[in-house]
């Protein structure tokens, strides 16, 4: 997921994730998991505020970049 640079800081990312959580729960999911680059401080801050927990550090995961894996039980 990504938000256009000119639209960031308008809670679009938070609203998208909240929507995904609601829809996933409707479909019977009990957990959301995702990854972010380790240098994406805005996403990391947002996920922490939304009670996501960092569960792994993935070295050279995708395009040889480092990522964190996050999860939240819904």
Task: Describe what you observe in this structure.
The protein has 74 residues and is of the alpha+beta class. It has a single domain, classed as Aminopeptidase. Helices cover 32% and strands 35% of the residues. The chain contains two helices and three strands; from the N terminus they run H-E-H-E-E. The chain has helices spanning 12-26, 41-49; strands at residues 31-37, 53-62, 65-73. A three-stranded antiparallel sheet has the order 1-3-2. The two termini are 19 Å apart.
- Poorly predicted regions are none
- The CATH class label is Alpha Beta
Number of alpha- plus pi-helical segments: 2
What is the name of the CATH superfamily?
A: Gcn5-related N-acetyltransferase (GNAT)
As for the number of domains, it is 1
CATH fold label: Aminopeptidase
What CATH architecture label applies? 3-Layer(aba) Sandwich
Number of strands: 3
Helical coverage, percent range:
25-40%
Q: Note the main sheet.
A: 3 strands, antiparallel
Instruction: State which percent range the strand residues make up.
Output: 35-45%
How would you write the strand order of the largest sheet?
Answer: 1-3-2
Quick take:
The protein has 74 residues and is α+β, with helices and mostly antiparallel strands. It is built from two helices and three strands, in the order H-E-H-E-E. Strands 1-3-2 form a three-stranded antiparallel β-sheet.
